[in-house]
Specification:
This protein has 5 helices and 5 strands; from the N terminus they run E-E-H-E-E-E-H-H-H-H. It is of the alpha+beta class.
């Protein structure tokens, strides 16, 4: 059955641990749904072609370009945006490291880079510089030259590993 362009669909999903249910157009992107319908403006829109990585979010733990994903495709999914990383105790170690290592300038690419870095560190707690560069290769930054970003991710990994290291 074909879906009409203007058809309205019910979209229920979980964002950063909270359940949301909205009715939206069948063609609405997840990026627009997150930003305009739910107020998660940390998800940035850059190229809107899935190339720059600014709109990167985690859908059921997997990296995804929210500008290429329809909100209806994410029904029932658990989504994490950059707003979901800071906790009661403050900034996530990756966010803190970005600040400490001057890994952002204009900040437009930063949410996608943060999401990607967190996903990397959740899968590989002690990445090499080459692994960090490979993971971040899908995120374009026009301001920093990447070295400070790589340094920040490696610093965050060290902090996370130190926090989990057994104490004698």
């Amino acid at each position: 059955m074909m879906t009409s362009v203007s058809e309205q669909l019910k979209v229920d999903l979980t964002v950063n641990g909270k359940i949301y249910c909205r009715v939206t157009e069948a063609r609405r992107t997840l990026a627009d749904f997150l930003r305009e319908d739910l107020g998660f403006t940390g998800t940035h829109l850059g190229c809107e072609h899935g190339v720059c990585g600014s709109c990167t979010v985690l859908i059921d733990g997997e990296l995804a370009r929210s500008c290429l994903t329809l909100a209806a495709q994410a029904r029932g999914a658990s989504i994490r945006t950059v707003e979901g990383f800071a906790g009661d105790s403050g900034l996530h170690p990756v966010q803190r490291a970005f600040k400490q290592h001057h890994a952002l300038q204009c900040g437009y690419c930063t949410p996608g880079l943060l999401v990607t870095a967190v996903a990397l560190l959740e899968r590989c707690s002690d990445p090499s510089e080459a692994q960090v560069r490979q993971w971040l290769s899908g995120n374009i930054c026009r301001c920093t030259g990447y070295q400070f970003i790589v340094d920040a991710v490696l610093s965050a990994a060290a902090e996370i590993n130190d926090r989990h290291a057994p104490r004698s």
